[in-house]
């Protein structure tokens, strides 16, 4: 397994980034990060709310439901974070009693040809730290139907990292990322993990990032590009 910093450094434009890790202090830590190429994608910020995180436009840029959404929700049982409006859908399904594997099913990729951005989501059970990582991607070749994958993580040892990104890219050519990456980290704390992720993102594309402790709900530490 490679280090998360190395994995993000070689992927110059990862799109949106979801990280779940067990840092050296034993805590389960999440990181959500935004990168962007266009002016509208770069004109975004992460805003904390009441048990949620929102991605909002900055300046005079208009609201766009594919770029601006609630990126994290939390209640007494669940913490959910991801890259689009499906976060609210999954959270509502969980609140209604659905199992996470069911809550993450029947989602679609984003309607943004020609990239067809995947919708990626992390669900954490606050009671025991069990996590589910979901991805809804466009089928390969000419197929337009959605492939939904759900990975259950029963436990992460100290230093283990699961990484989901929407894209794999050299900064010019963009393809959708195919799977969860199993990586490692030497970060001792959530703050260190956030710093590591932030510094690994290409300064040309990085926009914002948030570190959260999923078992504690939404208690975020934020970073924003100047």
Automatic annotation (TrEMBL):
InterPro entries: IMP_cyclohydrolase-like, IMP_cyclohydrolase-like_sf
Highest taxon, organism lineage: Bacteria
Keyword Hydrolase on entry: yes
Listed GO biological process terms: IMP biosynthetic process
MF-aspect GO terms: IMP cyclohydrolase activity
Pfam family, any one: IMP_cyclohyd
Location of the Inosine monophosphate cyclohydrolase-like domain: 13-211
Keywords for this protein: Hydrolase
Protein name as it appears in the record: IMP cyclohydrolase
Taxonomic source organism: Actinoplanes octamycinicus
Taxonomic lineage of the native organism: Bacteria, Bacillati, Actinomycetota, Actinomycetes, Micromonosporales
């Amino acid at each position: 397994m490679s280090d998360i910093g190395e994995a993000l450094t070689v992927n110059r434009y990862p799109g949106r980034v979801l990280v779940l890790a067990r840092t050296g202090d034993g805590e389960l830590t999440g990181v959500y990060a935004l990168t962007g190429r266009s002016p509208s994608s770069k004109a975004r910020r992460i805003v904390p709310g009441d048990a949620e995180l929102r991605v909002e436009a900055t300046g005079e840029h208009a609201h766009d439901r594919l770029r601006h959404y609630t990126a994290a929700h939390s209640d007494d049982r669940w913490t959910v974070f991801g890259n689009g409006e499906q976060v609210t859908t999954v959270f509502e399904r969980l609140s209604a009693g659905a199992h996470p594997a069911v809550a993450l099913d029947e989602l679609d990729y984003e309607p943004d040809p020609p990239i067809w951005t995947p919708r990626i989501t992390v669900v954490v059970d606050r009671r025991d730290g069990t996590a589910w990582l979901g991805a809804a991607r466009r089928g390969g070749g000419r197929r337009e139907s959605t492939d939904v994958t759900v990975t259950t993580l029963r436990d992460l040892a100290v230093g283990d990292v699961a990484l989901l990104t929407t894209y794999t890219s050299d900064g010019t050519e963009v393809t959708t990322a195919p799977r969860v990456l199993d990586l490692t980290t030497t970060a001792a704390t959530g703050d260190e993990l956030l710093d590591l992720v932030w510094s690994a993102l290409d300064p040309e594309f990085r926009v914002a990032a948030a570190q959260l402790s999923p078992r504690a709900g939404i208690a975020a530490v934020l970073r924003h590009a100047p």
